[in-house]
# Entry
Amino acid sequence: MLRSATAVVLVAILISPAYSLTANFSSLTAGTRYVKGATFLDGGITFDVVAGTSNVFISTFGTTNPAITGNFLNLTSQMEVAVNLPTGASRIDLDFSRGYPDGGFRINGTSIPYTAVPTTVNGVTITNILGSKTSPWGSITAVGSLESFALIGTEFFVDNLAVTPSPEPVGDYNDDNVVDSADYVWWRNNANNRSGFLTWRSSFNPSLIVRGASSNVPEPTAFFIAGVMGMTGLLSRRSCGRGENS
# Structure
């Protein structure tokens, strides 16, 4: 019964839909200022002020975008704010308003001026919907394999920034974003069923060392891999045996 229940949990994890995190900066105090080197958190998203000689602060007025209400992020003067993406992201959406024409984004290490949008760079497509061309405001969407994303600008107002994290690798049972022998150890100690093992084996990378497992667990050497293949045969024979006896 325990194995069946664990298998159901594993299947639920593997087929769970993508989720998103949204920062509307409502949890932060209006008027708070952040300088280069500062870190702040809202909506489950961490932001790092990585460049600029002025500050970033939480504003409540001065934007023409009707989608921006309450608190919003104000990049005052040639500031750069990175959105922390610990597992990467497949999509980022945000509402914006600009006081100055300069600025843009840094995506996967490449700077993209706002005037270049819409465009595709480093496997990421950036599009915009403008509410006004004379006083630019609207929304931005970036879709693709996002490893890093930063906002750059002067009087660049941002709100409702939503991040859709990249899905974890299939078979990553211990949630460290790699499929290695530590996930096999987790499977052996917690699930120990054929479907869970085959899911892990399909994504297993023998070049990765054990992560998160105890020091007495061997790295994925030839002996470990041979053991994995032996386990595959054993599980297959058990499955066949059950079919013959049914």
